[in-house]
Amino acid sequence: MLTLTGEKLHLRALEPEDLDFIYDIENDETIWEISATQTPYSRFLIKQYLENAHLDIYEAKQLRLVMMSHNKETIGLIDLFDFDPKNKRVGVGLLIAKSEFRHKGYGKEALELVCNYAFKHLQVHQLYANIDEENAASIKLFETAGFQQIGVKKDWNFVNGNFKNELLYQKLS
């Protein structure tokens, strides 16, 4: 079995055909809070991003993978970011873009696959995630996957005129 294939889905590299999907996600203002985005992205910029998506994680320090159901439906994205091979750590975040795939185990399986990939192939010692303290679904997902809350970043994000705390989760190999 391939490392990035599970019972419900597989993770694959970005393709030029993902332009519309990425465009819609990056320009969805309802999730800008999660991605720290403040301005819209043009199709041109996203096309350039996709053209460079082939860069090795050791060069780009990030890896974005598309979550695909075995029925070839695009579910969402899972990212490894701030890859630090010297200190053997990497951040992880995921987004299930289509509501019909939420709370059905796809996020859990994608997170398990990417954690196994990071530990085995990238040989990291730890993965970490930054989660808004009000995001109960993500907290449950990451805790179920073996992540532990190790800190609270007080008043970390300024959203809609209010400061919000961000929780720091970590999983060690």
Automatic annotation (TrEMBL):
Gene3D superfamilies associated with the record: 3.40.630.30
Ranges for domain N-acetyltransferase: 9-173
Transmembrane segments: none
Keyword Hydrolase: no
Gene Ontology terms, MF aspect: acyltransferase activity, transferring groups other than amino-acyl groups
Signal peptide feature range: none
This protein's record includes keyword Transferase: yes
Key words of the record: Transferase
Origin: domain of life: Bacteria
InterPro entries per UniProt: Acyl_CoA_acyltransferase (IPR016181), GNAT_dom (IPR000182)
Name used for this protein in its record: Diamine N-acetyltransferase
Naturally occurring in which organism (per UniProt): Kordia periserrulae
